Amino acid sequence: MFQTQILNFLKRHHYMRIEPEVALIDMDGTLYDSMPNHARAWYQMVQEYDIPCTPEEFYLYEGRTGASTINLLFQRTFGHDATPEQIEEMYHRKTVIFASMPEPKPMPGAAEMLRFLKEVGIRRVLVTGSGQNSLLQRLDRDFPGIFSDELKVTARDVVHGKPHPEPFLKALEKAGVHASHAIAIENAPLGVKSADDAGVFTLGVTTGPIPAIKLIEAGAGLTFPSMTDLASQLPMLIYSLMTTSNNLN
Ligand code: MG
């Protein structure tokens, strides 16, 4: 199983094989069912500033830093970037609205997926564009013993957010491994593009309204219809990764 897709990836990146030692894992929409709250908070905040937008578009910006989303809206509406003060004020307002919403629940299947990785000795690195302390602080409570403080990349660690490869390159650097020794787990097209451009075999999981084809177009090596499905197929997938090799001759 999975051999065709794995070989396609190996050929595209000129790797002999993938030896998965670390998993680079996104947070929003991957570990937490938080995207509906994020999208609603963005929509409400942007409407308060009388900038035209739709509730759905914020799913497509998932993975961007807050500043980059605000600049995108400003460029579209006014033809120029927002000032740093406007960005700070608007992002703060969005954070306040988000924090007032009911707590997002862990994604079904996420705990099982993480437990399996830990059991087989694959180290976990968090790679999120988020700087939302409310969720970051919950990680240890909801997924105890999974993420160490040294192996987290958040909005604070990068200059360029997803879809730029910097967040995943930073994660590889923190883990001290080459991209061919990693896999990534992502739910959003911009996140998938960031991971694939960093050279990492990326598992795209559809957990919201964005269809699988968008994740494949962004570079996902494989897609799964839910985190529960990924968790149940992960043992076979890791085995397939370790036993599939690309004859470079
Ligand atoms: Mg995400």
Bound molecules: magnesium ion
Structural class: alpha/beta
The whole-angstrom Rg is 18 Å
Distance between the ends: 24 Å
Strand order of the largest sheet: 3-2-1-4-5-6
Number of strands: 6
Q: For the residues shown, what is the average pLDDT?
A: 94
Task: Give the overall shape.
Answer: globular
The amount of helix comes to: 40-55%
**In percent terms, what proportion of residues is strand?**
5-15%
Q: Tally the helices: what do you get?
A: 12
List segments where confidence is low: pLDDT < 50 over at least 5 consecutive residues: none
- H and E order: HEHHHHHEHHEHEHEHEH
Q: Biggest sheet, in brief?
A: 6 strands, parallel
How does this structure look, described?
The protein has 249 residues and is α/β, with parallel strands linked by helices. It contains 12 helices and 6 strands. The chain has helices at 3-13, 35-48, 57-60, 66-78, 84-100, 110-119, 133-136, 139-142, 166-175, 189-197, 212-217, 227-243, and strands spanning 22-25, 123-127, 152-153, 182-186, 201-205, 222-224. Strands 3-2-1-4-5-6 form a 6-stranded parallel sheet. The chain starts with a helix and ends in a 6-residue tail after the last helix. The chain binds magnesium ion (MG). Residues 26, 28-30, 62-63, 187-188, 191 line the site of magnesium ion.
Secondary-structure map:
Blueprint: H1 3-13, E1 22-25, H2 35-48, H3 57-60, H4 66-78, H5 84-100, H6 110-119, E2 123-127, H7 133-136, H8 139-142, E3 152-153, H9 166-175, E4 182-186, H10 189-197, E5 201-205, H11 212-217, E6 222-224, H12 227-243
Parallel strand pairs: 1-2, 1-4, 2-3, 4-5, 5-6
Helix pairs in contact: 2-5, 4-5, 6-12
Bound molecules: magnesium ion (MG).
Magnesium ion is lined by residues 26, 28-30, 62-63, 187-188, 191.
